[in-house]
Write a structure and sequence with these properties.
2 domains; elongated; 10 helices; mainly alpha; Tetracycline Repressor, domain 2
């Protein structure tokens, strides 16, 4: 081996290590997302097993369960905001809120018990910030609908937001318990929430 080829080989090995590390991180986060969405108590041993890595490898990337939960929640929030940002919320406020509710339901159900896992592992202020953007979207629609006479104005608007959030999370829990069919949930969420806020 020449002097020139040795650094090249070292560089190739380093790139391969980085690629392996990135694959491991993605596998860990994806597995954690799937397990925590079903069981907020899922432990690192089960997550490592599902990801196909050892606990030493997992701890090499995330030094605690809290660090891993923080990463999972951050990615879930980013994905949720990106998807909801593409929605068309123009036109009739009731129709727009209906579209937003159905899209939000799918994401709420996908990420399931992550909210519970996040509330157990993260400070309340950090978790609260996670809901800021979705809440602002709902508030803007409710305000527009109130101005148009489409939504009730005889109760606090923040209460209406809380009711909508409760309906979304309640529907996800009901699906997991087998009380309602997953295919029926979006329409049920839409109808129930609109009935609660419509004038």
């Amino acid at each position: 081996m020449t002097e020139a080829s040795a650094p090249a080989a070292d560089g190739a090995r380093e790139r391969a290590k980085r690629a392996d590390a990135l694959r491991n991180i993605e596998s860990i986060v994806e597995s954690a997302t799937a397990l925590l969405a079903l069981d907020p108590e899922a432990n690192l041993k089960d997550i490592a097993k599902a990801a196909g890595v050892g606990r030493v490898t997992l701890y090499g990337h995330f030094d605690s369960r809290t660090a891993l939960v923080r990463e999972v929640v951050a990615r879930a929030i980013h994905d949720t905001n990106e998807r909801l940002a593409t929605l068309d919320l123009d036109g009739d406020p009731r129709d727009a809120l209906g579209r937003l509710l159905e899209a939000t339901w799918h994401l709420t159900h996908r990420y399931g018990a992550l909210t519970v896992a996040g509330s157990q592992a993260l400070p309340p202020a950090e978790l609260r910030r996670a809901h800021d953007e979705p809440e602002a979207r709902v508030l803007a629609l409710l305000t527009r609908g109130r101005d148009a006479g489409a939504f009730r104005a005889d109760m606090p608007i923040q209460w209406q937001v809380s009711v909508i959030q409760a309906i979304l999370h309640g529907a996800s829990a009901a699906v997991h318990r087998g009380e309602i069919d997953v295919d029926d949930a979006p329409a049920l969420v839409r109808a129930t929430a609109l009935a609660a806020v419509s004038a």
